[in-house]
Amino acid sequence: MPAPDQAVRVIVQGRVQGVWFRGWTVETARALGLRGWVRNENDGSVEAVLAGRPADVAEMIEHCHRGPPAARVQSVTVGEWPDEVARGFHQLPNAT
Fold this sequence. Notes:
Elements: E1 6-15, H1 21-31, E2 35-40, E3 46-52, H2 54-64, E4 72-80, E5 89-91
Parallel strand pairs: 2-5
Antiparallel strand pairs: 1-3, 1-4, 2-3
């Protein structure tokens, strides 16, 4: 019996805005079959919600530690996400 889906909230800090981090996240998450979203935060970080098979979520978190080539990731914080996550993976407008 496969493990139930997992959903997490990820905050990535460092040089992660203006370096195509959100677009890269969308492409990478979709390739892994994940659901969720990504957006820029006002403090310069990037927030994402990742949902799917635990192994795929774990792989995406590992990818977030590197990011796209121009990014310089300083930290990745992962926490639980208790809410439902819609189908697909999308880039949301910046946080307000």
